[in-house]
Amino acid sequence: MHVHKLTITIPGSRHIEIDLPTDLPEGEVIVLFRDGSSARPHAGSREAILAEEPITDAWRAANPDKLRTADEIDAQLDEERESWGDDG
User: Fold this and answer.
1) Model-level pTM greater than 0.90?
2) 22 in any annotated domain
């Protein structure tokens, strides 16, 4: 058995079409549904943050000086680690 988790919002039409990863074998699929009381993402969860993408985009547009690349963040972390010295 393989497990591949997808989060899909069911539209009013109740029709969805998905492309599955090519490494999944052919065969039966089981679909699980959350109960309606937990359908909304929890505040602060990845799903909730992504649902607020327009707000995130607006913040990014208003704060371009605060945006950093992954490489810049990694460099800062490396610099910080180097400042700790060697205890071993």
Assistant:
1) no
2) no
Contacts of 41 by beta carbon, 8 Å cutoff, 6+ apart: 47, 48, 51
Structural contact between residues 67 and 60, judged by C-beta atoms closer than 8 angstroms: yes
Q: Which amino acid type is present at position 65?
A: D
Collapsing DSSP to helix, strand or coil, 73 comes out as helix
The answer to whether position 29 is within a domain reads: no
Residues 20-51 pLDDT 10s? 888 888 888 888 776 665 556 677 777 777 66
CA distance 75 to 82: 11
Is 21 part of a structural domain of the chain? no
Q: Which domain holds residue 63?
A: 41-83
Per-residue pLDDT reduced to its tens digit, 64-78: 888 888 899 999 999
Phi, psi (rounded to 5 degrees) for 66: -100, 0
